[in-house]
Design goal:
Immunoglobulin-like; four-stranded antiparallel beta sheet; three-stranded antiparallel beta sheet; 1 helix
Length: 97
Amino acid sequence: MKIKAKLKKDVTEVKLLLSSPMIGKEEAATKKVAVSYLTHVTAKVGGKVVWEASTGPFLSKDPYFMFNFKGAKAGDEIVIDTIDDKGATDTDKAVIK
């Protein structure tokens, strides 16, 4: 997971690159590999959810997201949580610059 968060005036711009094969049932059967995709992505600042997405195998491998939000300041920490189709979670953090 790669996270870049920059404050521009009063808006924080976040660029997020996730690592996941994003393989659904049909593609897994064709390629003879295991089903594996992210189902939920959440971004929090100070414990408050500032962005979230419900995802599925319809996204490309290693999905990229970009989003903006207001209310943060330089030096705040943004925490990204992901959940995959098996219920496994991953968390990463970055400081807003």
